[in-house]
Amino acid sequence: MGFPENTNEKLDALLLAFADMVKSDYKKQISYGLPHLIAEIAAKNIEEVNGLIDFLKEKGYVDEHPRITVNGWEHIDELRKLTVTSDSAFVAMWFNEITVNYRNAVVAAIEYCKFKPVIIDQQEYNDFIMNQVVSSIKQSRFLVADFTSRPEIERDGKVKNGVRGGVYWEAGMAYGLRIPVIHICEDSAASRSRIHFDVDQYNTIFWKGNELHTEIRALDQPIPNPNFAEKLAARILFTVGKGSHQSGGR
């Protein structure tokens, strides 16, 4: 399902989360005080989760124990039959002042293809950040992973820069969920030499600083000397097609 934005979508997301918890143990009671549910259904806090559970009870989808009712399982079956495609695209990248230009180019490419870019440092959340990361990746149509890195330096007893471990983790999770991953990276010796062997085998879009433009020409025909945003947009369209997100799109 796509990212839940209104009450009905949150109710459906919560019911599906409960179904994932109990599997086929129809008599199993639901543990609903779990913090990850907040991120799973895009709730503000655990109080909102509790309020949504009350609504599920009023609808007859869960009982007072609480357990999922027959009506609840019938609704779950209907939800699972729906082929709802997410319009979100998760961006896994290094957050640093030097990344502003390629972040803007990535956002431009995603929005050109009518998807909503999800960049975790721009999202509002009230929970452990990794819960939000996991939830956002699960609800994305695809993931853009930027493997740009810099030479390692030691500062205050800690190693800075180097390989972006978080990007590898997030890309690996997306692969595990069978979510398409598009690889991008700076075309520099510092970055190329640090790409892990396993990842280096993938078809990566390499970019240079002088091609980080946000203007994208029409891609319905081949264009000469495409910039990075145009290359990325073309790869998105080839990989997953066009989305339907309107805000910021073309």
What does this structure look like?
About 2% of the residues have low confidence. Strands 2-1-3-6-7 form a five-stranded parallel sheet, with helices on both faces. It has a two-stranded antiparallel sheet with strand order 4-5. Helix 1 crosses helix 3 and helix 1 packs across helix 4. The longest helix is centred in the first third of the chain and has 16 residues. Helix content is 41%, strand content 14%. 34% of the residues are buried. The two termini are 24 Å apart. The protein folds into two domains: 75 residues, Arc Repressor Mutant, subunit A (Orthogonal Bundle); 153 residues, 3-Layer(aba) Sandwich (Rossmann fold), CATH 3.40.50. By secondary structure, it is α/β, with parallel strands linked by helices. The protein is elongated and about 60 Å long.
SSE topology:
Elements: H1 7-22, H2 36-40, H3 46-59, H4 70-81, E1 88-92, H5 100-112, E2 116-118, H6 129-138, E3 142-146, E4 150-155, E5 158-162, H7 165-176, E6 181-186, H8 189-192, H9 197-200, E7 204-207, H10 228-240
Parallel strand pairs: 1-2, 1-3, 3-6, 6-7
Antiparallel strand pairs: 4-5
Helix pairs in contact: 1-3, 1-4, 5-10
